[in-house]
Structures are given as structure tokens and as C-alpha cells.
Automatic annotation (TrEMBL):
<comment type="subunit">
    <text>The exocyst complex is composed of EXOC1, EXOC2, EXOC3, EXOC4, EXOC5, EXOC6, EXOC7 and EXOC8. Interacts with EEF1A1. Interacts with SLC6A9; interaction increases the transporter capacity of SLC6A9 probably by promoting its insertion into the cell membrane.</text>
</comment>
<dbReference type="Pfam" id="PF09763">
    <property type="entry name" value="Sec3_CC"/>
</dbReference>
<dbReference type="Pfam" id="PF15277">
    <property type="entry name" value="Sec3-PIP2_bind"/>
</dbReference>
<keyword id="KW-0472">Membrane</keyword>
<keyword id="KW-0175">Coiled coil</keyword>
<dbReference type="GO" id="GO:0005886">
    <property type="term" value="C:plasma membrane"/>
</dbReference>
<feature type="coiled-coil region">
    <location>
        <begin position="207"/>
        <end position="255"/>
    </location>
</feature>
<comment type="similarity">
    <text>Belongs to the SEC3 family.</text>
</comment>
<dbReference type="GO" id="GO:0006893">
    <property type="term" value="P:Golgi to plasma membrane transport"/>
</dbReference>
<feature type="domain" description="Exocyst complex component Sec3 PIP2-binding N-terminal">
    <location>
        <begin position="31"/>
        <end position="122"/>
    </location>
</feature>
<dbReference type="GO" id="GO:0048471">
    <property type="term" value="C:perinuclear region of cytoplasm"/>
</dbReference>
<dbReference type="InterPro" id="IPR019160">
    <property type="entry name" value="Sec3_CC"/>
</dbReference>
<keyword id="KW-0597">Phosphoprotein</keyword>
<keyword id="KW-0268">Exocytosis</keyword>
<protein>
    <recommendedName>
        <fullName>Exocyst complex component 1</fullName>
    </recommendedName>
</protein>
<dbReference type="GO" id="GO:0005546">
    <property type="term" value="F:phosphatidylinositol-4,5-bisphosphate binding"/>
</dbReference>
<keyword id="KW-0653">Protein transport</keyword>
Length: 330
């Protein structure tokens, strides 16, 4: 099954930016046996799309082709048929009911466990699980080569990661250097475990050796934070000074406006006074003729008449808007 998963991931899902999480070999219930694979996949880009994909081996060659894909959000019910006894049959309720028979109960359980965890993670328990044991829904169920999603309800772990050419070459070299890699897998795993422990020890020693540099770095960071605090204090004081200068500038601007307004009013007042003086000034001769006029002689009468005319002109001067002189001031 591992080889099949590797081939499906490489040929079908990697080109579509999808990751294969679980697979089950099935055939349709009650019909002539034509095997296919149901695959649980997620997209590698966000937003994550979860799908159940039906894949079938081509009749014309040794390759697989994608037949149909259902969005997991469209799955309403998963019916495992029997929660107590082992039974390879199960139903998936999409727009219609699809009845399947798995090649083994273990593969079926692993696939249903994967669907349950994807439901917990992405659909917030939208799917109903019927005739499924509670233990299967509460625990991660590995089944030999067919691993489902592990890590509980919080995170879906990327189970499959395709090896690149460099990693495949390194594995081949490592297996060639160990005679028991193929004949005795346990001895090979034990050897890898010992080497891993040696590497872990080297990493710990390296971390301990770098502790001094870490302390120096922390000290520098503390000093930098102190400098930042001082800079913030200076900036605050500068801000207060700028605020004070701004207030003073506003006061000066207001004072300048008042001075300009006062000068303008003085100029207008002076202009009005000059106008009144020039147009309402009565000559001393006219004043004397009016006060001491001799109405018995023709010359005196003429002088009084001229003075009266001059006085009348002064009284009839048209004042500018805003100016008013009462009769008692004349």
C-alpha cells in the first residue's frame, strides 16, 4: 500500500497541489468486483479544501486516473455498518448513498478515523458517524501501512511528504552501508536510533557551548532596551517643548491679528476725522458774522447770508455709513 500511496501522491495529487492523508482499497457493494481507491486529501494552499477522491487503475496501462472527487463538506453521514463486529462494509452519504466494501477492516477503520479528524478540524463536527465505535472516534488508529491523521483534534499532521532526489540518494547510500537494512529491519532501526542519540548529544553540547554567546546577546538586548527607553523619554520631552512653542506661536499670531485690526481701525478713524474737519469746518469770519452780524446795513446782511449758506453746507454734508453726529453736537 505504501508504494501505491507514493505513486498516487506523485502522479495525481502533487500536480494538483494536494496532499494524500489516507487511502482505502474498496469495491462497490453487491457488484462485480472492480477495485478502486478512496483517498482523503487536503490542498497545500489556503483556504484548505478537503476532498474524498475516487481513483481507479487504468485498464490500458499501469497508471492511475482520477475518476471523481467529492468535497468533504458535502458528506452528510458515514455509516460503518457495525460498531462491535469487524465488518469491511461502509456507506458514504453524499448527494446519494455510496456503498463500499474495503479490502480489510483495518483499512476501513483507518480511513474513517481520518475522515473523523478532518471533520473535527475543518467542518466543526458537521458529519454524522453512524455505527462507529467510540474508541475509533476518540483515538488515532494506525493500521500498518495505512496511517490516518494523527495528533488529535487540534492539528492535521502532514502524513505524507514526497522525498526529493537528494533524500532518496542519501537513503540508498545509508541502506547500502548497512547490511542488515533489508534483512533485519529491527537491527537497522536500532542502528539509526543509536546514531540519532549521538546526534542529539552533539546538538546538546553545541547548545551548551553557545550559552555564553546567548548570554552576551541577551545583555546587548537589555542595553538596547535601555537605550530605547531613554530615546522615548527624550522624544516625550521634545514633544512637550514643541507643544509649548506651538501655543506661544498661536498667541503671537492672535496678538498680531489684533494689532493689525487696531491699526486698520485707527487709519479708518483718522480718515473719517479728516473728512469731517475738511467738510464741516466753518470759517472764523462766518462765525463772527453770525454772532455779531449787522442786519441794519446791506453789507452786514450779505455777510450774514454768506455765513448762513456756509453753515447750511456744513450741516448738509453727507456722512459716510456708520458715522452719526447729533444735532446737539453741532
Amino acid at each position: 500500500m505504501t508504494a501505491i500511496k507514493h505513486a498516487l501522491q506523485r502522479d495525481i495529487f502533487t500536480p494538483n497541489d494536494e496532499r494524500l492523508l489516507s487511502i482505502v482499497n474498496v469495491c462497490k457493494a453487491g457488484k462485480k468486483k472492480k477495485n478502486c481507491f478512496l483517498c482523503a486529501t487536503v490542498t497545500t494552499e489556503r483556504p484548505v479544501q478537503v476532498k474524498v477522491v475516487k481513483v481507479k487503475k487504468s485498464d490500458k496501462g499501469d497508471f492511475y486516473k482520477r475518476q471523481i472527487a467529492w468535497a468533504l463538506r458535502d458528506l452528510a453521514v458515514v455509516d460503518a455498518k457495525d460498531a462491535v463486529k469487524e465488518n469491511p462494509e461502509f456507506d458514504l452519504h453524499f448527494e446519494k448513498i455510496y456503498k463500499w466494501v474495503a479490502s480489510s477492516t483495518a483499512e476501513k477503520n483507518a480511513f474513517i478515523s481520518c475522515i473523523w479528524k478532518l471533520n473535527q478540524r475543518y467542518l466543526r463536527k458537521k458529519i454524522d458517524f453512524v455505527n462507529v465505535s467510540s474508541q475509533l472516534l476518540e483515538e488515532s488508529v494506525p493500521s500498518g501501512e495505512n496511517q490516518s491523521v494523527t495528533g488529535g483534534d487540534e492539528e492535521v499532521v502532514d502524513e505524507y511528504q514526497e522525498l526529493n532526489a537528494r533524500e532518496e540518494q542519501d537513503i540508498e547510500i545509508m541502506m547500502e552501508g548497512c547490511e542488515c537494512a533489508i534483512s533485519n529491519a529491527e537491527a537497522f532501526a536500532e542502528k539509526l536510533s543509536r546514531e540519532l542519540q549521538v546526534l542529539d548529544g552533539a546538538n546538546i553540547q553545541s547548545i551548551m557551548a553557545s550559552e555564553k554567546q546567548v548570554n552576551i546577546l541577551m545583555k546587548l538586548l537589555d542595553e538596547a532596551l535601555k537605550e530605547v527607553d531613554q530615546i522615548e523619554l527624550k522624544l516625550s520631552s521634545y514633544e512637550e517643548m514643541l507643544q509649548s512653542v506651538k501655543e506661544q506661536m498661536n498667541q503671537i499670531s492672535e496678538s498680531n491679528h489684533l494689532i493689525h485690526l487696531s491699526n486698520t481701525n485707527n487709519v479708518k478713524l483718522l480718515s473719517e476725522i479728516e473728512f469731517l474737519v475738511n467738510h464741516m469746518d466753518l470759517a472764523k469770519g462766518h462765525i463772527k458774522a453770525l454772532q455779531e452780524g449787522d442786519l441794519a446795513s446791506s453789507r452786514g446782511i450779505e455777510a450774514c447770508t454768506n455765513a448762513a449758506d456756509a453753515l447750511l453746507q456744513c450741516m448738509n454734508v453727507a456722512l459716510r455709513p456708520g458715522m452719526f453726529i447729533g444735532d446737539d453736537k453741532m
